[in-house]
Amino acid sequence: MNTKKEILELAKTTSVELLEEKKSLHDILITCRSISKSLQISDMNPWIEFEINGYLVKYKTRDELYDNLPSYRKTSWKFFDIYGNPISLPPDIMDLFGKSVIYHPVKDLENKNELIIGNQFLEKFNKFIGEHGMDYASKSVRIHEAKISKKEINQILEGIKNRIQEFLDIVIAILEND
Questions:
Q1: Tens digits of per-residue pLDDT, 57-113?
Q2: Could you tell me the end-to-end alpha-carbon distance of the chain, in angstroms, rounded to an integer?
Q3: Cβ within 8 Å of residue 27, ≥6 positions away
């Protein structure tokens, strides 16, 4: 991209494509990355890269992920045992272990009906329950997986869309006032 006028037109076109849902969010983020690099807006680059590549590229532990995820990527998990039966947990246990970590790249979230979180992120919970239980009957409870519903995935995608739109609005405002 050569001129600020061309970048402005690209930002406006991308904003319309986002509104009309003509392109995937992944493709729109690729365009945003190009705009950001062309304008040398370095403070937006990490967020764009995380949305494109996922948050596991930098944050390896569940707590670190949770602390650094944007608020729109924080949801509530629904827990299931090995047989697919739902497991309900008391609120204090949910506060301790129910922090969701939707770290996936945007491409992995688009067009999904649900998202299944494997038990590698649930080991801490299973160890705690095995040692302490929540009550006498719960010592044998083991979480096999957690699921994120389509509704919650859509909320995450909506959060990404809103953040993209904010980025494009800022770019357009800056370039129009230049």
A1: 787 777 788 888 899 998 877 888 888 888 877 777 776 666 677 888 999 999 888
A2: 17
A3: none
